[in-house]
Amino acid sequence: MTVAAHSRLSVSALSSWNWTLDQDLSFWQETGIDHVGIWTDKLDGPGWNDAVEKVAARGLRVSNLISAGPFSLDRPAKWPEQRERLISMLDAAAVIEAPLLVLTTGPANGLDWEEAAAALESAIGPVLDLGHEIPIAFEHTNSLRPDIGFLHTLADAIDFARQLGVGVCMECNACWAERGLYQTITEGVELLSIVQVDDFVVGTRDTPNRVVPGDGDIPLERIVGHLVAAGYKGDFDLEVVGPRIEEEGYGAAIIRSVEAMTAILEKVNA
């Protein structure tokens, strides 16, 4: 079955969490999905370079390369090694022609917010100073996930990105109920590098536990419409993960999600 996706909609490999890279590539070919986000976990291992080349050879339109971390913010001794990994991600993004590397900040552990922000600036500074051609965007995360990041609101992510000179990955699932969301979008739209889309059922108490757009309670049409009206020109990256997606099956859930988001994007004239 093929599915017609809006040109600004990409499908993240996180939406097929437990599939291998080869399974993703096969599914995308079968369904005609050619605009995708690549997850570094599916490139990892002794075959990293081969996996990167395999993606590049497919001629896919890649919206972003995404990874958790990369820094242990309370352990400066690990930063040199972690910088090397970050540089390898940037190099991979260049090979697969991904216009963006999306990261979470990494865990702050015992640091307070200000200490964590200062640590991340120190950790990543030498990499940013290299002037790599691939820009970096930081994703804000659900507050239940301090193991992968300390930025838990879109407003904080925008403030931090403006200070550091990087971009922001806006995750609708983590900010849809945030105070002053539309003002935050309007005032920070120039820093939004990519927007992750998915849905959430009110009453869910675990994470990640998302649903197909339209099956939950996030007012996606209103949020996406405001993004477009505010002048956001980037991609919308579909990232549906969790037990409900596993239960339905990746293929069916992704196809329904693509159809639902395409309808929304067309309705708001994205």
Name some characteristics of this structure.
alpha/beta, globular, TIM Barrel, about 40% helix, single chain, about 270 residues, 8-stranded parallel barrel
Overview of the molecule:
It is a single chain. An eight-stranded parallel beta barrel has the order 1-2-3-4-5-6-7-8. Strand 7, helix 8 and strand 8 (235-238) form a beta-alpha-beta unit. The chain has helices at 21-31, 48-57, 79-95, 113-128, 154-164, 172-175, 181-188, 220-230, 243-248, 250-267; strands at 9-12, 35-39, 61-67, 101-103, 136-139, 167-171, 192-197, 235-238. It has 270 residues and is an alpha/beta fold. Helix 3 (79-95) crosses helix 4 (113-128). It has one domain (9-243, 254-267): Divalent-metal-dependent TIM barrel enzymes (TIM Barrel).
In brief:
By secondary structure, this protein is of the alpha/beta class. It is built from ten helices and eight strands. It has an eight-stranded parallel barrel with strand order 1-2-3-4-5-6-7-8.
Give the full name of the CATH homologous superfamily.
Divalent-metal-dependent TIM barrel enzymes
SSE class: alpha/beta
Q: Largest sheet at a glance?
A: 8 strands, parallel, barrel
The CATH class, by name, is Alpha Beta
Number of beta strands? 8
Number of helices: 10
> Number of folding domains?
1
Based on CA atoms alone, the radius of gyration comes out at 18 Å
Order of helices and strands: EHEHEHEHEHEHHEHEHH
Adjacency order of strands in the biggest sheet = 1-2-3-4-5-6-7-8
Beta-strand percentage range: 5-15%
- The end-to-end distance, rounded to whole angstroms, is 25 Å
Unreliably modeled segments: none
Q: Please give the CATH architecture.
A: Alpha-Beta Barrel
